[in-house]
Amino acid sequence: MTLPHPSVTTDGADVLHNTSMLQMIPSLTDRNTAEFFSTLEWVGSLGNWSKPQMLVIAKLKLEGRVRQFFEASLATVSDINYDKFKEAIVNHFREEKSFSFDFAKFSSAHQMEQESVKDFSVRIEGLAHRCLNNHLEIGENISDSFRARLLLSQFVSGLKQFIKAQVVVANPSDFKTAVEIADRIQTSQSILTPNINSVSDSAHINDFAKLLKSTTETFTKSLELVTQQLQALNTRVDEVQKSRQSPPPQRQNKNRVTCFHCNKQGHYANECRKKLAERRQNDTRNSGRYSYGHGAYGNNNMERRNPN
């Protein structure tokens, strides 16, 4: 089947303006019928599009099961307009949304990154109501205890991981208690690791500013103390290195030195020649005194051997 170009209506009367806005409109599938027509009408009001033009655009955006339904049921209708087209599509695929479809959305719901615990609890309750109430036939009923257990189970399993682990340990008995516990955990976590993106009012901003200022001052003082210690350590290392690299102290000019032994200038006492000569003389004298046949002990021995 060949569909008309969106620049003209079916009767070729009007030219479509602001065609660049077409990229803002998603494809029409069996899962987004209500959202599609809401977006189309909003963009159409901005672009001053007529309903015949929006009908042509909607036909061009058909995909999958919606296109199959249109070709089988609506393509042959001669007097179809935008309102009839929208009503037929929305009603048909609203009925097509089965219990399994809504239950899949309910059971796969998870807390989003910037979503608070309370917002997630409201959203999960809405999904549960749509899943468990909208598909009941007249006379059918689901027990309140089963509904409460199902809601509690899905709420806990959909929480963020660091919140879910602590809620499971707390083992709440009902949905309301689980929401309160999860909210306390999220609040305490936000205090320990504040996220500036989640700060919403002036009181929280002031508290965060005080906490940030206190943390900054503590960090600055610690940094100054560490810097001082590093400077002292560097100074000590420099002193040790200089002491190792400095040459040994040199003696004074010997011309000004007086020997303690001979009282003459020009040398130290350990270099004094007179002192060395006297030491040698004393060593020679002492060695002869105690040799055999000489000295006092040697003569006495000879006299004892030869008394006559």
From TrEMBL:
Origin: domain of life: Eukaryota
Where the record annotates domain CCHC-type, the positions are 259-274
One term of GO molecular function = nucleic acid binding
List keywords of the entry alphabetically: Metal-binding, Zinc, Zinc-finger
Matching entries from InterPro entries are given as: Znf_CCHC, Znf_CCHC_sf
- Gene3D superfamilies linked to this entry: Zinc finger, CCHC-type
* Keyword Acetylation in annotation: no
A Pfam family that this protein carries is zf-CCHC
Which intervals of the chain are annotated as region Disordered?
Answer: 237-257, 279-308
What's the protein name? Answer: CCHC-type domain-containing protein
Write down the species: Araneus ventricosus
